[in-house]
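## tool: complex_structure
## caller: assistant
## args:
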Amino acid sequence: MTEQLLSIVHLSAVSARDGNAPVLRDVSLSVARGEVHGLVGESGAGKSTIAKAILGILPGGIRITQGTIKLGGRDLLALGAHARRRLLGAEVSLIPQDPLTALNPARRIGAQLTDGLRLWRGLSARDAQTRALALLDDVQMREPARVMRAYPHELSGGMRQRVLIAAAFALDPKLVIADEPTTALDTTVQKQILRLIRAMQERHGTSVIFVTHNLGVVAQICDRATLLYMGKVMEQGTTRDLIEVPHHPYTQAVMAACPRYDRPGQELEPIPDAVLATCRAEVMAFDRAGVSHG
Amino acid sequence: MAEALIDARAVVVAYAARRQFLSKAAPPRPVLHGVDLTIARGETVGIVGESGSGKTTLGRALIGLLRPVSGSIRFDGREIAELGEAAMRPLRRRMQMIFQDPMSSLNPRRTIGRTLTAPLLLHGLVDNRAAARRRIEMTLERVGLPASVLARYPHELSGGQRQRVGIARAVVLAPDFVLADEIVSGLDVSTQAQVLKLLGELKREMNLSMALISHDLSVVRAVCDRVYVLSQGRVVEQGRCDLVFDHPQDAYTRTLLDAIPLPVIDPTWLDRQAPGAAA
Amino acid sequence: MAEVALNHDAAVAAGPPKLRRRSALRALLAQPKVVFAGGFIVLLILLALFAPVIAPHDPLDQDLLSGTLPPAGFAGAQPGYWLGTDDLGRDVLSRLIYGTRVALTVAFVAAFAAALLGTVLGLFAGFYGGAVDAIVSRLVEIWMAFPPVLLSILIVAIMGSGVRSVIVAIAIIDWTRFARVVRAETMAQAKADYVVAARVLGFGRLAILFREILPNVAPVLLALVTLEMGIAVIVEAILSFVGLSVSSDTPTWGGMIAQGRQIIYQAWWVFAAPLAALFATVLAFNQLGDGLRRALDPVMQR
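## result:
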């Protein structure tokens, strides 16, 4: 068995703002070194909550009630805030969803790219500059020197996302969390960005958690994936199994609800009520068990 | 071919640059460079393209929200490209629109009931509020919403419910043509399937003509009869969905199709370079 | 089918949607500062309306024998004169109470007049754009280049002193404040899809402007009117202070401050009492304005 970089075991969380309603229900998943792991689900399924829990940036009101998140053997939830920040800063990075708001509009790209290098690697301004240029070259940015001097608004959405990918890989992290990084992009740009993330990941041997609502994206970029519904794992496995031989009725139903340009004008099948009833029964069974345990 | 409800010829639309005080206006920036498009009665046409292709502009020109610089747009045989706001108004009932973002397309200070009632009274489709209420309740039931939403404000509904309200507002006027602009792009797959299915049913029941604007070619294939592929303000390819999707002729169409990640295991997809794709 | 589908929608959209609706009034009353500020202003209105009943003395009644009496609790205070008397022996509390009449009249009438003028111009400028906008915007820019104090002195000088002149001066000077904010807000709202939706539905321009856009501009407007009331109270006080408001036999806070300034070493309370009243009133209007803005915004309510 391959070595696990990240393992989440029995993670549950509740939203205090919502009367302590569960938002994660006993989620377990593990990501091997060099693996791209997809977190799939509809909005509110908990995929972003998991990503934020790993990064330690859960919004106020979301409270973890049980479980562990281990990165390279160390339990992140047991670490103090300072130790955790040191660990995460160097070993985990994020490719955010919105490339526009993720960059400071008032600062040049170069300054924003070199920040992390200087803080975490202790590079001099000059070395950081050289390293940042190399990174931009890595993400196939044309005219990297000009981009370094540019402000975010001078770049297209795809270019900004390339900058953020460069920034995410700058410190050679062990784990990159990509939070719907292509949702705001046109499909042709999306494909370039997916190709780039995969290429960077393979070159650096990085593990990636890829948060998305698009099963097509999962099929094309992930090695393994976890499908969530209402904060509970519905199905988990290799992408091939998930896509080609889905076991859970929810997975089957979601696959059937996806429109596909390669199929003649089929009637789209919304998720059948019976399937939703099954899913909800699983969720409620968990909630009841949680209550009886205290 | 069936009689065309909408017949647009050589439509050119340009946006005027904002004029600064005491300075000369910059020349208008063209967005559509001569687009031909027809939509038959009962037909659903897809308009696809990437951001900046002019698909939204084309849609707005078709329902008379934008006035073309040149070209002709006929609606049911009548030229609308030249009509002013007031002359358009009687035609408005017959051409409706469903918006991408149902939150911003519903007035936040108005209950759903008031939003749906006012247009019915405006166009004289009902004699009184009681009749309006009956008609609205029937429409709500048809789109799968309980009558209780009438008393609610837009922010009190879920995304899927708001989109249904948007659909109800468009169809309650019994229009001939509905423009749907990226209406499922913000929705989850299952909600998207529900909305598209509903739209297909309404279209058949009411013999609606529809234009579905989308960046998602899969959605277009699922519901449209014909498709127009737009790039930089020009139609690069158009035709029946089966022909365009199964045998695309234009390189740009091929690039667009190839860029869509399908939920199938295809190890060659990621590194496959479609002809003409920029590195 | 429909019911289940809806449940699904709801479940997917992060739990069941909150259908509890808080009315604007309840959102308003939930803010303690609004309750205090609103209560204070209601109190002022009552004082102004029933001044003759409430005031312990005639505000103009001079009694040179009981001049510069200190407020209650200080050495030499006389019962019945809670806030003391001025150098002419007039009861400060009674003058303060009568002073609310001018202050509030100016606050309400001037703020509404300025709002009306500015809102109409701002709405049209923001909605129609083009030449209308160019004219209104230029007018606002030119207007704002005038020093407001000089402009108000000029207006009062032309029209003659009196409450009416003060109101006209405030409205004519401060409409730009409303025009600018309403224009910007209208432009933002006019771009929203619901305005396009109204056009698609066939509503005319004026209907869209007043039925769709105005209600969405209203919260900002209402907050601004309330703030303007505070400003109007101050402007009136300034004009009274320099003797350009009402005739000196009508008690005003500004006039009292002017008078108190001259005898500040003999009778500080004549200066301090109206200043405190002015301060509290303006603060109350500002707090109320802020509270209104919060309460009326349907998105901020959550």
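## assistant note: The CA atoms of residues 248 and 255 of chain C lie 7 Å apart. Chain C touches chain A at residues 1, 4-5, 8, 11-15 (CB under 8 Å). Handing back to user.
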